[in-house]
Every structure is written in structure tokens, then in C-alpha cells.
TrEMBL record:
One Pfam match: DUF1513
Keyword Lyase: no
PROSITE patterns: TAT
Keyword terms: Signal
Signal peptide limits: 1-19
Protein name (database record): DUF1513 domain-containing protein
Length: 431
């Protein structure tokens, strides 16, 4: 028997580990403690602060091995892309833009890195990350809107562009953004449609030719009211637009005109669930958080002059519009990413500032559960994607790491954690 002696503490620890592993279905476990099979998934994550990464004592933002595509003399913002194959291979490249979301598809060799509030976008080779070309908005006065998508039929890359931020003119129409349809290979502009909303951000397919767009609704503060760091919200909305002709199919203005509408997902029945955001001046934090009776972190994902206050989700189903609040308002701060899981008829939402994941019943639009991700070692959850051909989904922390969860049960996968630093991001893409 050797000299090993089983103590009561050791027995309890072993029992707990055995229970945790046997509680998970065999489909998400592989071999002898190896990471679960991910069907060759490849992850793409922006890095908002490449200057915080170092190689050979030099910030990646300016290291020649990572900045081949940045023109000489360029002095604008720089954003990094990290490409992770789940086997651990990581490639990184820094690009000349204020990047936000990466749109990538296995059908096409190029990925689009859309910017947000910046007049430059880039395309790059999705394998090597080599820069393909710099793209300008379709017209003067427009900037990147953050998100894009490849259409299901493969004909187009639909890219959101915003109007440049300027003081509110008194007419919402003066601030409407655009849907720019580009050829997915040549990136030439094929058509331009109004998105019929102010400050568009995320775009999702509703059916073969209709898209849903979340529009922040925020413009610059009117000149007569001075400048403030918190947004001036004039018309938050969700618009449904026909890509064939640009026709406005439907428009849903927010129930609370002070809440930006930033992200959304579509269920299999044409219903919508959107993330609303309340970004306020930091001086309002004591009033809005007072009485919560809980300890929470000061949020370092936002400007020190601002604070993410609680905001409910916005549900649209069968023509009915309603808020979907969580039981504890402090759990619903800075909703970031949202997806719909058709297999289990659930919406999944990450809340960055409160370190939470919320699961919403897709039919009844009721909160099923709230997961405290900080207790799992996942802080500031941001990116959220299902893994292709598996029963899993992935959640990325704003600064580091990716955790896997089982769809339906939402149990964390014990071997499903990849430890890597991303240097700040909002969304993750997976193919």
C-alpha cells in the first residue's frame, strides 16, 4: 500500500472532485483531464490596450514584429487582434484603428475589424492576421459603428457606420447611421441603406433578408447645454431593415428614453431581446447604488468620470414590449454580449461591471438564473459565443482568460479554461 495515508480532509477533497466530474455529461469531457473537444474552434479577440503588452521590453503597440501593417508616421489609435486556436497557439497583430468587433466566417479568407467612432476599418487574413487593406467609411462624415455580419447567402458583408459624433441638431434624422453592403472578397461598396436609427451598433439577421439593428440613440450634447462625459440620449431604438431595398420594416423606440440600446439577439420566432445601458456621471453613483447593501468593485473598464448604473433588458415579442429586470438591480450593470440558444430556448447575457451571467427564458422572458462569475475566477465577463458543433459556450474575461460552460445546465466545464491575457476587449468571435 506504500506510505500514503488517506486523511478525512483528503477524502472530502477527492469526493468533491469526483462529484464535480461525474455531474457533467461525458460529451463535454475528454480523456484524462484534457480540455474538452471544441471541434477545432478558433477565437478572435481585440486588445484595446496593446501598449500594456510587452515583447523584448517594447510595447506591442510599437514593436516592429507586431505592427507591419501600420503606415509610417501614423499617430492614431492602435488596437490588437489575438487569434487563439484552442490547442494553445496564439498569434497577435496590431492594427491602425480604434477597433471594436471582428467579423469572421469560415467561407471567406478575410476578416473585418470594424472600428467604433473612428474613420478607419481594416481587413486581415484570418489565418496569418496579415493586414489586407485599410477601409474608409462609404462617405465623409461617417465612422465605424462597431459591428458587421456576413449574410447567410454569402453575397454581402453588412457593415454598420455611424454619423460622426456632433452636437444634437434637434432632428434625430440628422444623426441616422448607415448599413453599408460590401463585397466579401473585394470589399467594394455594393449598396448603402439608412439604418433609420441614431448611433447604430449591433446588427443581427432576423430572416434571409431582414436585419435588426440596435441604435444607442445618443448624440453630442447640444451646444447651448455645454459638454458632459455622459451620453446625451435622444432616440434609443431597434430598427428592422430590409437589406434588399433599405425599407424600414419596423421601429421600436426604447421604453425609457434615457437608456441606450447597445446590443441585441433574435430568437427563432422573430422576437428580440436587447441590452439597455445606463451610463451616468460618476457623481450619481452614491445615489444609484445606495441601499444595495453589497460590496462591489470600482469599475476600471470605464472612464473615471462615468459609472454604469443598473438597467433592465428590453423584450419585444409578438408585438409586446416590456422590460426584463433582474431581481437584484446591481447584477445588471453594463450588459455586454447576448446570444440566443435555440436548442434550449434561452438567451444568455454577460454583465461586465457586476461579474454576472444571466439566463433568460426565451418564451416567457423571465430570468431563470444568475451566475456569479467572479466566484469562478472569471472577472469582467465580456465576449460570449457558442462553440461550433458542441454543447458548449465560451465566455471571455475583459482582460484575461476564456471559460467554457455547458449549454442548458450552464455548469462550468472543469477543464474548459484557457489562461491567456487579452489586454481589454468587448466582444469575442469564434469560428
Amino acid at each position: 500500500m506504500g506510505r500514503y495515508r488517506l486523511t478525512r480532509r483528503g477524502f472530502l477533497q477527492a469526493s468533491a472532485l469526483l462529484a464535480a466530474s461525474t455531474a457533467l455529461p461525458r460529451s463535454v469531457l475528454s480523456g484524462d483531464g484534457a480540455p474538452p473537444a471544441t471541434a477545432g474552434a478558433v477565437f478572435y479577440l481585440p486588445g484595446y490596450r496593446p501598449q500594456r503588452a510587452r515583447y523584448e521590453g517594447i510595447p506591442l503597440s510599437h514593436h516592429p514584429d507586431f505592427t507591419e501593417g501600420i503606415p509610417a508616421g501614423y499617430e492614431g489609435p492602435r488596437t490588437m487582434v489575438s487569434r487563439l486556436a484552442w490547442n494553445g497557439t496564439v498569434k497577435r497583430r496590431v492594427f491602425p484603428l480604434k477597433g471594436h468587433q471582428i467579423t469572421v466566417d469560415r467561407r471567406f479568407p478575410l476578416a473585418l475589424f470594424n472600428s467604433i467612432d473612428h474613420p478607419a476599418m481594416v481587413t486581415f487574413d484570418r489565418h496569418s492576421l496579415a493586414l489586407d487593406r485599410l477601409l474608409e467609411p462609404h462617405a465623409e462624415g461617417f465612422v465605424g459603428g462597431g459591428h458587421a455580419l456576413f449574410t447567410p447567402d454569402g453575397c454581402c458583408l453588412a457593415v454598420l457606420e455611424r454619423r460622426e459624433m456632433r452636437p444634437f441638431t434637434g432632428r434625430a434624422e440628422d444623426h441616422y447611421g448607415a448599413i453599408v453592403l460590401r463585397d466579401p472578397i473585394s470589399m467594394q461598396v455594393m449598396a448603402v441603406h439608412s439604418c433609420h436609427g441614431v448611433n447604430p451598433h449591433e446588427i443581427r439577421m432576423v430572416d434571409d433578408h431582414i436585419v435588426a439593428i440596435s441604435n444607442y440613440g445618443s448624440a453630442g450634447w447640444p451646444v447651448e447645454r455645454g459638454q458632459r462625459p455622459d451620453p446625451f440620449v435622444v432616440e434609443p431604438s431597434i430598427t428592422l431593415v430590409d437589406l434588399r431595398n433599405g425599407a424600414l420594416v419596423e421601429k421600436y423606440v426604447g421604453l425609457d428614453p434615457q437608456l441606450e440600446i447597445r446590443h441585441l439577439a433574435v430568437d427563432g420566432r422573430g422576437g428580440l431581446l436587447a441590452i439597455q445601458t445606463r451610463l451616468v456621471a460618476a457623481q450619481q453613483e452614491p445615489r444609484l447604488a445606495g441601499g444595495s447593501g453589497r460590496l462591489y468593485e470600482a469599475d476600471d473598464t470605464v472612464d473615471y468620470r462615468l459609472w454604469f448604473a443598473p438597467a433592465p433588458l428590453y423584450s419585444i415579442t409578438a408585438g409586446e414590449r416590456s422590460p426584463v429586470p433582474l431581481a437584484d438591480p446591481m447584477d445588471q450593470r453594463q450588459g455586454q454580449s447576448i446570444l440566443y440558444d435555440p436548442r434550449h430556448d434561452e438567451f444568455i447575457v454577460t454583465y461586465t461591471s457586476s461579474h454576472r451571467i444571466a439566463v433568460i427564458d426565451g418564451t416567457r422572458r423571465r430570468v431563470k438564473r444568475v451566475i456569479e462569475t467572479d466566484r469562478l475566477g472569471l472577472h469582467y465577463p465580456r465576449g460570449l459565443q457558442p462553440l461550433p458543433d458542441t454543447g458548449l459556450y465560451a465566455v471571455s474575461g475583459s482582460w484575461r482568460n476564456i471559460h467554457l460552460f455547458e449549454r442548458g445546465t450552464h455548469r462550468p466545464v472543469p477543464q474548459g479554461v484557457h489562461y491567456e491575457t487579452w489586454f481589454g476587449h468587448s466582444h469575442m468571435s469564434v469560428i
